[in-house]
Amino acid sequence: MKKWGSFTLFMILTMLVLAACGNSSNTATTxxxxxxxxxxxDNTASSGKAATLESVKASGKLRIGTEGTYAPFTFxxxxxxxxxxxxxxxxxxxxxxxxxxxxxxxAWDSLLGGLESKRFDTVFNEVxxxxxxxxxxxxxxxxxxxxxxxxxxxxxxxxxxxxDLKGKKSAQSLTSNLAxxxxxxxxxxxxxxxFTQAVGLxxxxxAQATINDNLSYLDLKKQQPDAPIKVVAExxxxxxxxxxxxxxxxxxxxxxxKALKDMVDDGTYLKISEKYFGEDVSK
Length: 283
Known about the structure:
The protein has helices spanning 2-23, 53-59, 85-97, 108-116, 131-134, 177-184, 195-203, 214-223, 250-265, 268-277, and strands at 30-33, 39-42, 61-66, 75-76, 82-83, 100-105, 122-128, 137-139, 144-146, 148-153, 169-172, 188-191, 210-213, 229-234, 239-246. The protein is an alpha+beta fold. The strands form five sheets. Strands 3, 6, 7, 8, 9 and 15 form a six-stranded mixed beta sheet that branches.
Protein backbone atom coordinates (compact mmCIF):
# COMPACT_ATOMS: atom_id res chain seq x y z
CA MET A 1 0.00 0.00 0.00
CA LYS A 2 2.85 2.39 0.83
CA LYS A 3 4.61 1.60 -2.45
CA TRP A 4 1.37 2.08 -4.43
CA GLY A 5 0.63 5.35 -2.64
CA SER A 6 4.11 6.72 -3.35
CA PHE A 7 3.87 5.79 -7.02
CA THR A 8 0.47 7.46 -7.35
CA LEU A 9 1.76 10.62 -5.70
CA PHE A 10 4.75 10.61 -8.05
CA MET A 11 2.50 10.29 -11.12
CA ILE A 12 0.21 13.12 -9.95
CA LEU A 13 3.15 15.44 -9.40
CA THR A 14 4.61 14.53 -12.81
CA MET A 15 1.29 15.29 -14.52
CA LEU A 16 1.04 18.65 -12.77
CA VAL A 17 4.54 19.63 -13.89
CA LEU A 18 3.80 18.62 -17.49
CA ALA A 19 0.55 20.56 -17.44
CA ALA A 20 2.32 23.64 -16.18
CA CYS A 21 4.93 23.37 -18.92
CA GLY A 22 2.22 22.94 -21.53
CA ASN A 23 0.59 26.19 -20.45
CA SER A 24 3.79 28.23 -20.61
CA SER A 25 4.73 30.29 -23.66
CA ASN A 26 8.00 31.51 -25.05
CA THR A 27 6.23 34.48 -26.67
CA ALA A 28 6.94 37.76 -24.93
CA THR A 29 3.84 39.70 -23.94
CA THR A 30 3.41 43.39 -24.55
CA UNK A 31 1.30 45.67 -22.39
CA UNK A 32 -1.08 47.47 -24.73
CA UNK A 33 -3.86 49.99 -24.40
CA UNK A 34 -7.12 49.60 -26.24
CA UNK A 35 -9.27 52.48 -27.45
CA UNK A 36 -11.00 52.70 -24.08
CA UNK A 37 -7.70 53.11 -22.25
CA UNK A 38 -7.92 49.67 -20.61
CA UNK A 39 -4.83 47.50 -20.37
CA UNK A 40 -4.72 44.60 -22.81
CA UNK A 41 -2.18 41.92 -23.67
CA ASP A 42 -0.86 41.19 -27.14
CA ASN A 43 0.72 37.75 -27.45
CA THR A 44 1.11 37.96 -31.22
CA ALA A 45 4.64 37.02 -32.19
CA SER A 46 6.32 39.17 -34.81
CA SER A 47 6.76 37.51 -38.20
CA GLY A 48 9.92 39.50 -38.76
CA LYS A 49 8.31 41.08 -41.84
CA ALA A 50 6.92 44.56 -42.31
CA ALA A 51 3.20 44.91 -41.72
CA THR A 52 1.24 44.97 -44.97
CA LEU A 53 -2.40 45.73 -45.67
CA GLU A 54 -3.00 42.00 -46.10
CA SER A 55 -1.37 41.05 -42.79
CA VAL A 56 -3.17 43.81 -40.90
CA LYS A 57 -6.55 42.82 -42.32
CA ALA A 58 -5.82 39.16 -41.59
CA SER A 59 -5.09 39.95 -37.95
CA GLY A 60 -8.03 42.35 -37.69
CA LYS A 61 -5.82 44.82 -35.81
CA LEU A 62 -3.56 47.77 -36.48
CA ARG A 63 -0.85 47.83 -33.81
CA ILE A 64 -0.02 51.46 -33.12
CA GLY A 65 2.91 52.80 -31.10
CA THR A 66 2.40 56.08 -29.24
CA GLU A 67 3.72 57.89 -26.15
CA GLY A 68 0.55 58.53 -24.19
CA THR A 69 2.28 61.39 -22.35
CA TYR A 70 2.40 64.11 -25.01
CA ALA A 71 -0.68 66.33 -24.81
CA PRO A 72 -2.60 67.29 -26.85
CA PHE A 73 -1.36 64.70 -29.31
CA THR A 74 -1.37 61.51 -27.23
CA PHE A 75 -2.20 61.52 -23.51
CA UNK A 76 -4.56 60.23 -20.82
CA UNK A 77 -7.62 62.24 -19.86
CA UNK A 78 -8.96 62.74 -16.33
CA UNK A 79 -10.58 59.30 -16.48
CA UNK A 80 -7.36 57.60 -17.56
CA UNK A 81 -8.51 57.05 -21.15
CA UNK A 82 -5.89 57.30 -23.88
CA UNK A 83 -6.87 60.20 -26.11
CA UNK A 84 -5.42 63.05 -28.13
CA UNK A 85 -5.20 64.33 -31.69
CA UNK A 86 -2.93 61.55 -32.98
CA UNK A 87 -4.95 58.92 -31.13
CA UNK A 88 -8.21 60.12 -32.69
CA UNK A 89 -6.65 60.26 -36.16
CA UNK A 90 -5.20 56.74 -35.82
CA UNK A 91 -8.49 55.39 -34.46
CA UNK A 92 -10.44 56.82 -37.40
CA UNK A 93 -7.89 55.51 -39.90
CA UNK A 94 -8.16 52.02 -38.37
CA UNK A 95 -11.94 52.19 -38.60
CA UNK A 96 -11.72 53.01 -42.29
CA UNK A 97 -9.31 50.12 -42.84
CA UNK A 98 -11.87 47.85 -41.19
CA UNK A 99 -9.62 46.83 -38.30
CA UNK A 100 -9.33 47.47 -34.57
CA UNK A 101 -6.73 49.98 -33.31
CA UNK A 102 -4.49 48.52 -30.61
CA UNK A 103 -2.28 51.14 -28.98
CA UNK A 104 1.01 50.29 -27.30
CA UNK A 105 2.50 53.06 -25.19
CA UNK A 106 6.25 53.55 -25.09
CA ALA A 107 8.76 56.29 -24.41
CA TRP A 108 9.58 58.46 -27.41
CA ASP A 109 13.16 57.18 -27.57
CA SER A 110 11.94 53.60 -28.06
CA LEU A 111 9.08 54.18 -30.51
CA LEU A 112 11.06 53.96 -33.74
CA GLY A 113 13.08 51.05 -32.38
CA GLY A 114 9.82 49.29 -31.53
CA LEU A 115 8.59 49.88 -35.07
CA GLU A 116 11.82 48.59 -36.58
CA SER A 117 11.65 45.44 -34.43
CA LYS A 118 8.03 44.90 -35.62
CA ARG A 119 6.54 45.48 -32.17
CA PHE A 120 4.20 47.97 -33.87
CA ASP A 121 2.75 48.13 -37.36
CA THR A 122 2.95 51.92 -37.31
CA VAL A 123 3.56 54.89 -35.03
CA PHE A 124 1.17 57.84 -34.70
CA ASN A 125 2.99 60.29 -32.44
CA GLU A 126 3.66 63.61 -34.14
CA VAL A 127 6.65 62.10 -35.95
CA UNK A 128 8.32 64.73 -38.12
CA UNK A 129 8.96 63.73 -41.73
CA UNK A 130 12.70 64.10 -42.30
CA UNK A 131 15.10 62.95 -45.00
CA UNK A 132 17.10 61.01 -42.42
CA UNK A 133 14.07 59.02 -41.24
CA UNK A 134 12.95 58.41 -44.81
CA UNK A 135 16.18 56.49 -45.40
CA UNK A 136 14.94 53.80 -43.01
CA UNK A 137 11.15 54.11 -42.88
CA UNK A 138 8.07 54.95 -44.92
CA UNK A 139 5.77 57.86 -44.08
CA UNK A 140 2.12 58.46 -44.77
CA UNK A 141 1.05 61.73 -46.32
CA UNK A 142 1.39 64.52 -43.72
CA UNK A 143 -1.63 64.91 -41.46
CA UNK A 144 -0.44 67.87 -39.38
CA UNK A 145 1.87 70.83 -39.93
CA UNK A 146 3.58 73.10 -37.45
CA UNK A 147 5.33 76.43 -37.82
CA UNK A 148 7.61 78.46 -35.60
CA UNK A 149 5.70 81.49 -34.34
CA UNK A 150 6.80 84.62 -32.49
CA UNK A 151 4.75 85.13 -29.33
CA UNK A 152 4.58 88.26 -27.16
CA UNK A 153 2.32 89.72 -24.50
CA UNK A 154 -0.96 90.94 -25.93
CA UNK A 155 -0.11 94.53 -24.91
CA UNK A 156 3.30 94.50 -26.61
CA UNK A 157 3.53 96.91 -29.55
CA UNK A 158 7.33 96.95 -30.00
CA UNK A 159 7.78 93.49 -31.50
CA UNK A 160 6.01 92.81 -34.79
CA UNK A 161 8.54 90.65 -36.64
CA UNK A 162 11.47 88.32 -35.96
CA UNK A 163 13.85 91.18 -36.80
CA ASP A 164 12.39 93.17 -33.91
CA LEU A 165 13.91 90.64 -31.48
CA LYS A 166 17.29 92.39 -31.66
CA GLY A 167 18.29 93.34 -28.12
CA LYS A 168 15.13 91.81 -26.62
CA LYS A 169 14.88 88.94 -24.17
CA SER A 170 13.42 85.77 -25.67
CA ALA A 171 12.50 82.81 -23.44
CA GLN A 172 13.78 79.64 -25.12
CA SER A 173 14.85 76.05 -24.41
CA LEU A 174 18.59 76.16 -25.08
CA THR A 175 18.74 72.92 -27.08
CA SER A 176 15.83 73.82 -29.35
CA ASN A 177 16.29 74.94 -32.94
CA LEU A 178 13.81 77.68 -32.03
CA ALA A 179 16.44 79.21 -29.76
CA UNK A 180 18.76 79.42 -32.75
CA UNK A 181 16.15 81.41 -34.67
CA UNK A 182 15.98 83.86 -31.77
CA UNK A 183 19.79 84.13 -31.63
CA UNK A 184 20.01 84.65 -35.39
CA UNK A 185 17.70 87.64 -34.97
CA UNK A 186 19.83 89.20 -32.23
CA UNK A 187 17.76 88.20 -29.18
CA UNK A 188 19.16 87.74 -25.69
CA UNK A 189 18.21 84.20 -24.69
CA UNK A 190 16.56 83.53 -21.34
CA UNK A 191 16.76 79.81 -20.64
CA UNK A 192 13.54 77.90 -19.87
CA UNK A 193 12.59 74.24 -19.59
CA UNK A 194 9.60 74.44 -21.88
CA PHE A 195 6.69 76.41 -23.32
CA THR A 196 4.77 76.72 -20.05
CA GLN A 197 7.72 78.36 -18.33
CA ALA A 198 8.29 80.63 -21.33
CA VAL A 199 4.71 81.87 -21.15
CA GLY A 200 5.17 82.50 -17.44
CA LEU A 201 8.17 84.72 -18.13
CA UNK A 202 6.22 86.60 -20.78
CA UNK A 203 3.21 87.29 -18.63
CA UNK A 204 5.43 88.42 -15.73
CA UNK A 205 7.44 90.75 -18.03
CA UNK A 206 10.70 88.90 -17.39
CA ALA A 207 10.99 88.24 -21.13
CA GLN A 208 9.61 90.15 -24.10
CA ALA A 209 9.07 87.22 -26.45
CA THR A 210 9.33 83.52 -27.13
CA ILE A 211 9.55 81.58 -30.37
CA ASN A 212 7.64 78.34 -30.20
CA ASP A 213 5.56 75.82 -32.10
CA ASN A 214 2.20 77.17 -33.29
CA LEU A 215 0.54 73.92 -32.19
CA SER A 216 1.65 74.51 -28.62
CA TYR A 217 0.28 78.04 -28.84
CA LEU A 218 -3.06 76.85 -30.23
CA ASP A 219 -3.35 74.21 -27.52
CA LEU A 220 -2.69 76.79 -24.79
CA LYS A 221 -5.24 79.23 -26.21
CA LYS A 222 -7.77 76.39 -26.48
CA GLN A 223 -7.26 75.55 -22.82
CA GLN A 224 -6.80 79.15 -21.64
CA PRO A 225 -8.50 81.50 -24.13
CA ASP A 226 -7.86 84.50 -21.85
CA ALA A 227 -4.09 83.97 -21.68
CA PRO A 228 -2.62 87.46 -22.33
CA ILE A 229 -0.37 86.48 -25.25
CA LYS A 230 -0.56 86.79 -29.04
CA VAL A 231 1.28 85.68 -32.19
CA VAL A 232 2.83 88.52 -34.17
CA ALA A 233 4.82 86.61 -36.81
CA GLU A 234 5.35 83.10 -38.17
CA UNK A 235 7.92 81.34 -40.30
CA UNK A 236 6.87 80.63 -43.87
CA UNK A 237 8.03 77.00 -43.90
CA UNK A 238 6.10 74.42 -41.88
CA UNK A 239 7.45 71.13 -40.59
CA UNK A 240 5.14 68.22 -41.32
CA UNK A 241 4.37 65.03 -39.45
CA UNK A 242 2.85 61.73 -40.52
CA UNK A 243 2.36 58.12 -39.57
CA UNK A 244 5.54 56.08 -39.93
CA UNK A 245 5.89 52.48 -41.19
CA UNK A 246 8.54 49.91 -41.99
CA UNK A 247 9.71 49.62 -45.59
CA UNK A 248 7.92 46.75 -47.26
CA UNK A 249 4.52 48.00 -46.16
CA UNK A 250 3.86 50.23 -49.16
CA UNK A 251 0.33 48.93 -49.70
CA UNK A 252 -0.54 49.64 -46.07
CA UNK A 253 0.76 53.20 -46.44
CA UNK A 254 -1.36 53.67 -49.57
CA UNK A 255 -4.47 52.48 -47.71
CA UNK A 256 -3.74 54.85 -44.81
CA UNK A 257 -3.23 57.72 -47.25
CA LYS A 258 -6.62 57.02 -48.81
CA ALA A 259 -8.23 56.97 -45.36
CA LEU A 260 -6.60 60.31 -44.48
CA LYS A 261 -7.73 61.89 -47.75
CA ASP A 262 -11.29 60.64 -47.25
CA MET A 263 -11.26 62.08 -43.72
CA VAL A 264 -10.32 65.49 -45.11
CA ASP A 265 -12.89 65.29 -47.89
CA ASP A 266 -15.83 64.39 -45.63
CA GLY A 267 -14.96 66.85 -42.86
CA THR A 268 -13.91 64.28 -40.25
CA TYR A 269 -10.34 65.59 -40.13
CA LEU A 270 -11.47 69.19 -39.55
CA LYS A 271 -13.75 68.06 -36.73
CA ILE A 272 -10.86 66.31 -34.95
CA SER A 273 -8.51 69.24 -35.60
CA GLU A 274 -10.94 71.80 -34.19
CA LYS A 275 -11.55 69.58 -31.17
CA TYR A 276 -7.92 69.93 -30.07
CA PHE A 277 -6.67 73.14 -31.69
CA GLY A 278 -9.70 75.20 -32.63
CA GLU A 279 -8.70 75.32 -36.30
CA ASP A 280 -7.40 73.32 -39.26
CA VAL A 281 -3.80 72.28 -38.56
CA SER A 282 -3.20 70.35 -41.77
CA LYS A 283 -1.37 73.21 -43.54
